[in-house]
Amino acid sequence: MTILDWFLDPAQWAGADSIPVQVGYHLLYSGTALLIALAIAVPLGVYIGYTGRGELLVAGVANALRALPTFGLLVLVVMLVAPHIGSRLAFVGPTIVVLVLLAAPPILSGTVAGIQGADPGAVGAARATGYTRPQILWHVQVPCALPLFLSGVRNATLQIVSTATVAAYVSLKGLGRYIIDGRASSDYTQMAAGAILVAVVALALELAFLGLERAVVSPGLTRAQLPILRRTSRVRPGVVPPASPREATP
Amino acid sequence: MTLDWIWDNAARIGELTAWHAALSVIPTVLGLLLAVPLGWWASRSARIYPLVIGGSGLLYTIPSIALFVLLPQVLGTKILDPLNVVVALTVYSIALLVRVIADGLASVPHDTVQAATAMGYRPWQRLWHVELPVAVPAIGGGLRVAVVSNVSIVTMAALLGIPQLGSLFTQGFSLRLTVPIVAGIVMCLVLSVVLDVLVHAVTRALTPWQQKAETA
């Protein structure tokens, strides 16, 4: 059976384990984790970005988490926590916790970097026009922070969707099921089909985020992001550009 | 019993660590070699830049496990072939580094480039002797991110049964033992710190003028 046949098989499109159901579970787990991560990371990020307290901690946590193998963390947390929970949530709960742990740092650092990276000229101009500090935060710093905040959320979503796939190993539903079950029964077609579905979901979310960024970010901010466009003598000698590409901090 | 397990399996942990190091380092190096020309190309033109950066961003979006499973289709390899992991991580490394290199080259001060041109450097000489060295700190920063993420991503290959430190996670899970899992996580962290320090050291060695600027 080819991969195309697998997708055309009506059995894959109806019933309790069908493709729409698994996509639904995948998005349900991912969405829940993302909402919890946002609820924790955004207020904290605004506070840190606004007051400047705890910046080093944010950078340190973000770096340490990049090195931490997510798959190992997932397996460890599930093994330690699951025996103490009797219900059907035994595997779902710990998995969501791990997904939130992975998603919070990129959102946090995006929020902090965004708020602190707001053009000092714009902040100064707002102050000169008589804006109060909360007004500056809300009307100047937050809109300026949107690009970096959204790219933080995008990174977090990517990380969640990818790790939620792996969560099938600890017996969770979702698109990872096809890969894990296919591997267990040496059914490569099923594995490849699952991989395609995961890739499509991830790409669709990425494109949705890019569309969202285009829609909500002020057009005055987007052009400046292409360094090549501001090449002409604005860069001072000896200034090192941001090291990491996806979590670039200005 | 904790130490016993580690002691009994020390040889295997060493072997898995060696595999893990190879599977993380080789793709990083290959990625760097391929990303330099691509990044240079992207830095040359404002029209190509969004294409290359956007394209590599989309590649980076595909979850690693999906790429590991799909590459055998493209490469004609077996699912257990470590080559799949090497190719997948090379793709990620390129995607990550191309942007760093393009931005690094684009941010080389205009005066420096003009000075080199005035001194008679040919374009490729200028790239090799002036622009790339000036961009080294930026590229080094990107390289550190790439190698550390690779160490983490390699563990995913354990789901398919390709041996590296992630194999300790699956082993621990099927035996209901936490020790192998913790040992695997610790070894991964140690490996990423070592590689991170190594890249940092090489970056510093290649940019002696930076040290002087910092101490002065």
SSE layout:
The complex is a heterodimer of chains A (250) and B (216).
Chain A: H1 3-8, H2 19-51, H3 55-67, H4 70-81, H5 89-116, H6 120-128, H7 133-166, H8 176-184, H9 188-216, H10 219-222
Helix pairs in contact in A: 2-5, 2-7, 3-5, 4-5, 5-7, 6-7, 7-9, 8-9
Chain B: H1 2-8, H2 10-44, H3 48-61, H4 64-75, H5 82-106, H6 110-118, H7 123-154, H8 167-175, H9 178-206, H10 208-215
Helix pairs in contact in B: 2-3, 2-5, 2-7, 2-9, 3-5, 4-5, 5-7, 6-7, 7-9, 8-9
Can you give a write-up of this model?
The complex is a heterodimer of chains A (250) and B (216). Chain A has 250 residues and is an all-alpha fold. Chain A has one domain (16-222): Orthogonal Bundle (MetI-like fold), CATH 1.10.3720.10. Chain A contains ten helices and no strands. Chain A has helices at 3-8, 19-51, 55-67, 70-81, 89-116, 120-128, 133-166, 176-184, 188-216, 219-222. Chain A is elongated. The termini of chain A are far apart. Chain B has 216 residues and is mainly α. Chain B has a single domain (2-206), classed as MetI-like fold, CATH 1.10.3720.10. Helix content of chain B is 83%, strand content 0%. Chain B is built from ten helices and no strands. Chain B has helices at residues 2-8, 10-44, 48-61, 64-75, 82-106, 110-118, 123-154, 167-175, 178-206, 208-215.
Unreliably modeled segments of chain A:
230-250
CATH superfamily of chain A: MetI-like
- How far apart the termini of chain B lie comes to 53 Å
Low-confidence sequence ranges of chain B: none
Biggest chain-to-chain interface with counts: A-B, 54 and 69 residues
Rounded Rg of chain A = 21 Å
Order of helices and strands of chain B: HHHHHHHHHH
Q: Describe the biggest sheet of chain B?
A: none
Mean pLDDT of chain A: 83
- Fraction of residues in H or I helices of chain A: over 70%
CATH topology (fold) name of chain B: MetI-like fold
CATH homologous superfamily heading of chain B: MetI-like
Helix content of chain B: over 70%
> How many domains of chain B?
1
How many DSSP E strands of chain B? 0
Proportion of β residues of chain B?
under 5%
Written as H for each helix and E for each strand, in order along the chain, the element string of chain A is: HHHHHHHHHH
GO cellular component, one term (chain A): plasma membrane
Subcellular location (chain A): Cell membrane; Membrane
Pfam families (chain A): BPD_transp_1 (PF00528)
Transmembrane segments (chain A): 27-50, 56-82, 89-108, 156-180, 192-212
